[in-house]
Amino acid sequence: MNTLWDFLSMSDANVRFVTIGSVLLAASSAVVGCFTVLRKRALVGDAVAHAVLPGVCLAFILTGEKNPLILLLGSFLTGWLSLIIIDLVTANSRIKEDTAIGLVLSVFFGIGILLLTSIQHSNNENQSGLDKFLFGSAAALVGQDLITFGAVAVLLLLSVLLLYKEFKLISFDLAYARTIGLPVRGLELLLTTLTVLAVVVGIQSVGVVLMSAMLITPAAAARFWTDRLGAMVVIAAAMSAFCGAAGAYVSFTAPAMPTGPWIVMLLSLLAIFSFILAPKKGLLARYLMQRRLRRQMTRENILKTLFHLGEAKGEYEHSYSKQQILERRRQPLLRMKNGLKVLRRQGLVQESHDGWALTSPGKKEAQRIVRLHRLWELYLTEYLQVASDHVHEDAESIEHVLTPELEKRLEELLDYPTSDPHHTTIPQQS
Amino acid sequence: MNIDAFWIILTGALVAICCSLLGCFLILRRMAMVGDAISHAVLPGIVLAFLFSGSREVWTMLIGAALLGVACTFLIEFFHKKARVQADASIGVTFTTLFALGIILISVYAGKVDLDQDCVLYGEIAYVPLDIWLTESGLNMGPRTVWIIGGVLVLLLLFITVFYKQLYLTSFDPAFATAIGLSTTLWYYLLMGAVSLTTVAAFESVGAILVVALMVGPPATAYLLTDDLKKMLVLSALAGTIASAAGFYLALWLNGSVAGAISVIIGLQFLLAFVFSPSHGLLAKRRQPIAVMKANAV
C-alpha cells in the first residue's frame, strides 16, 4: 500500500513525468483511434508507426543533430506520405487494401532500417539513442517531452471536440456527408493528419509495434459497451488513461518492467474482458440470450406437438405420453423433459398418470403458434409464389418471432383465411 | 564473390522463395495483415521455448513459435467470429497483445533470455556465415541457417505441389470447396501453420519486417503481372530471389542493413510493376481508353 501511496502522491518528479505523459498519450490516441476503427482503417495506424522511421533518419541526416522537433517533423512527413501511398495504390490498381498496408509498412520500415544502420556505421557520435525512437521508452520521458505530449494531446482533443459532428458524419455516412456539401476530402485528410500526429508522438513511449494497440484496442473495447459515438469516445479515453497510469505504476514498483508493453497488456486484458462480459454485446450475454430463445422455441414446439396430436381427433385436452410426443416430433429427450417442466410451472400443460395434456391457457397458446405457422405458409405461397411443399421449414422458424402486429397485417393481407396451403384449418383467435 | 557473400545471398534467396510462395495465397485471401500479425506474435513463443529448453535449440524454438502463430490466427478468428470484433481491429488487438506479452517475458527473464526486440524485428543476415554447422567428424557443412531454411523450403514445396488443388480451391472459391467436401477451416489453419513455421525459421536471420516485406511485396508485384496462380507463384519467387541478391549489394554499397536493403528493392520492384505492368499498370490503364477510342473510330 505504501508504494501505491508514494506513487499517487507523485512526489518524485520522474514519476510525475512518466505518469502524466502516459495518461495524456494514451487518452488522446484512444480518442483519435475511435474514428480510425469506426472507419475500418484500424491497421493503418500500424503502417504509419512503421513509416515513421525513415523520416526520423532523414531528419537526422539532413540536420546532423537530434532536435526532437525536427525529428518529429520528419517522422510526421513520412508517416503522412505512407498513408497517401496506401490510398494511391488501392485506388489505382487491383491491389487490395490489406496488401497495400503490408507493403507500405514493410518497405518504409526497410528504408528506415537501411538509413539507420547506415548512420550507425558512419561513426557520427551524435547518433546514439536514435533507435530509442523506435522501441520507445516511456521511462525516459523528461520535462521537455511532456510539454510536447501535452501540446499534441490538447491539439488532438480540441480538433476532435470542434469538429465532432463532421467527423461523426464521415465515419458513419460518407455519402450523406458529401450530399450536404461537407468538404469530405479535407475532413478525411484532417482526420488522417490527426492519426499520424498521435502515432508520431506516441511511438516514443510505446514503440513502433505496440503503437497500433494504443489506437485500436481501447476503441474496440469501448465499442462493446455502447452504440453512441460520444459515449464510446469517452469510455475509450477513460480506459486508456487508466491503463496509462496503471502501466506507469507497474514500472514504478518494478523498474525493470517496460511501461509501454504493460500499458498495452492492461488495455488488452480490459478489451478481452469487454469482449466476453460486456452487457448485451458481450460473448456471454449473447450466449445467454441465444439459450433463452432456444429454450422458448423448444417449449413452443412441445405445445404445438400436443396441439397437432389432439387436432386429429378434435379433442385437445387429451393426455399423451412422452413417447407419443417424441414420435410426433423428434427432439432430445432431456431438452423435452426440461421444457415440459417449465410449461407445467407456467400452467400451460398438466401431468396426469397417463401423460401430459394441454390446459386451456396452454391450448390457447398452442393455437396462436399453429396459427402463425399456417398464416406464414399461406403468405409464402400466395405472395412469394413458393411451392406449398417448400414453405414448412421457413414457417417453422418464423412462427416463434412473429409479433401480434405482424399477425394482424398478415391476416388483413390474406383476407382472413380459414385454411392453409395444405388444406388444414387455420385455428381462429378465440 | 567471396564465400560469405554467397551464403548470405543464398539464405536471402531461400527465405524469399519460402515467403513469397506463401504470400501469394495470403494476398489472394486478403490476409496480408494476418501474415504481419503472425510474424510479430511468434515472439512469446520463441521466448517460452527459450525458457523451457534453456538454449537456442532450433527445434523447440520452431515448435514454440509455430504453436503461437497458430494460436494467434485462432484468436483473431475467435474475436472476429464469436465475439464479433471488427476484423481489422481483431488482428490489431491480437498481435499487439502477444507482442507485448513477449517483451514483458523478456524483461522478466532478462538474465536468462538472450533476445531483444530489435533482433526480432530486423534480424541480422550478415551474421549467417558465422554460425557454421560442423559435423562430428569436423566436416564443414556450411551455415546452419541455410540448412534450416532449406529444410523448410523443401517442406513448403512439397506442401504446395501435393495440395495445390486444395489450396487453390479454398483460396478462390471457399463455397465450392466446402461443397465438394474440403474443410476450409483445416486448410486455413494448415496454411497459417506454414506461415508461422516460415516466419520462425526466417526471423533469426532476416527479422519479422523482412518476412512481411517478402510475404507481401513479391506476390503483390506478381499479382500485377499475371492472372494465373501458377505463373504468379513462379514470378513472385523469382522477384523475391532477385530482390535478395540485389539487396545484398545495395547494402554493401550503402554500408547498411541487408534486410532493410532487400525491402527497398522489393518496394522498387512493386513500383515498376505498378507503373509499367502491361496488363494492370498505370500506363496500361491510361492507354486503354485511347485504344478503345481508336477502335471505335475505325
Give a quick precis of the structure:
The complex is a heterodimer of chains A (430) and B (298). Chain A has 430 residues and is mainly α.
Give descriptors for this structure.
heterodimer, A: 430 residues, mainly alpha, ABC transporter involved in vitamin B12 uptake, BtuC, Arc Repressor Mutant, subunit A, Diphtheria Toxin Repressor, domain 2, 3 domains, two-stranded antiparallel sheet, 19 helices, 2% strand, elongated, B: 298 residues, 12 helices, 2 strands, 80% helix, Fe_dep_repressor (chain A), transmembrane helix (chain A)
Write a structural description.
The complex is a heterodimer of chains A (430) and B (298). Chain A is an all-alpha fold and 430 residues long. Helix content of chain A is 73%, strand content 2%. Chain A has three domains: 277 residues, Orthogonal Bundle (ABC transporter involved in vitamin B12 uptake, BtuC); 74 residues, Arc Repressor Mutant, subunit A (Orthogonal Bundle), CATH 1.10.10; 51 residues, Iron dependent repressor, metal binding and dimerisation domain (Diphtheria Toxin Repressor, domain 2). Chain A has a two-stranded antiparallel sheet with strand order 1-2. The termini of chain A are far apart. Chain B has one domain: ABC transporter involved in vitamin B12 uptake, BtuC, CATH 1.10.3470. The model of chain B has no long low-confidence stretch (mean pLDDT 82). The interface between A and B is large, with 65 and 65 residues. Chain B: It is a multi-pass membrane protein. Chain B: It comes from Rufibacter hautae.
The tally of strands of chain A reads 2
Counting helices, strands and paired strands, the structural category of chain B is mainly alpha
As a whole number of angstroms, the C-alpha radius of gyration of chain B is 20 Å
**Euclidean distance between termini CA atoms of chain B:** 57 Å
Low-confidence stretches of chain B: none
* Shape estimate of chain A: elongated
Structural class of chain A: mainly alpha
CATH topology of chain B: ABC transporter involved in vitamin B12 uptake, BtuC
Name given to the CATH architecture of the largest domain in chain A: Orthogonal Bundle
Domain Iron dependent repressor metal binding and dimerisation (chain A): 359-427
Keywords (chain A): Cell membrane, Membrane, Transmembrane, Transmembrane helix, Transport
GO molecular function, one term (chain A): transition metal ion binding
Protein name (chain A): Iron chelate uptake ABC transporter family permease subunit
